[in-house]
Write a structure and sequence with these properties.
Structural class: alpha+beta
Number of strands: 5
Mean pLDDT: 76
CATH class: Mainly Beta
Distance between the termini: 64 Å
Strand order of the largest sheet: 1-2-3-5-4
Low-confidence stretches: 23-34
Order of helices and strands: HHEEEEE
CATH topology: OB fold (Dihydrolipoamide Acetyltransferase, E2P)
Number of domains: 1
Helix content: 10-25%
Number of helices: 2
Strand content: 25-35%
CATH superfamily: Copper binding periplasmic protein CusF
CATH architecture: Beta Barrel
Radius of gyration: 19 Å
């Protein structure tokens, strides 16, 4: 009886771990449609190449309980979108994903970050929550 109880508890724990892992990898609803226009609020930083930027600690605007702290690469959709002047600021950015890869929950995971084509960018705050150097 003791072994049956332990096996049952082990199966419950394994099932819970499996379900928790599935919930973490499910992309936000807006990221599932590659051509759907979405708006995120996050911190815009410089990217690894010219005219490429990184939106960090992003969360989708208007979605309560949605994924938070997302990371993805941002490129301007046209010359009218000036992302460079908003680097290190908190921004509200609207656009579409150019691939079907969902936003990552960590920029250090070694995964390829999805590319977000920005059609507009709006200033939200000077401070992104980053430590201020002395």
């Amino acid at each position: 009886m003791h072994r049956t109880f332990v096996a049952t508890i082990g199966a419950v724990i394994a099932s819970a771990a499996f379900l928790a892992a599935q919930a973490k990898t499910t992309p936000p609803a807006a990221a599932q449609g590659a051509a759907k226009t979405v708006t995120y609020i996050g911190c815009l930083g410089p990217g690894s190449s010219e005219n490429t930027f990184l939106l960090s600690n992003a969360e989708e605007k208007g979605i309560k309980g949605g994924a938070k702290h997302l990371y993805f690469k941002v490129v301007p959709a046209s010359e009218k979108v000036n992302l460079e002047e908003r680097v290190t600021q908190q921004v509200e950015i609207t656009g579409t994903f150019t691939d079907s890869t969902p936003p990552a929950t960590s920029s250090e995971s070694g995964e390829k970050l999805p590319t977000f084509s920005a059609t507009s960018v709006k200033f939200k705050a000077d401070y992104c929550g980053l430590p201020v150097p002395f």
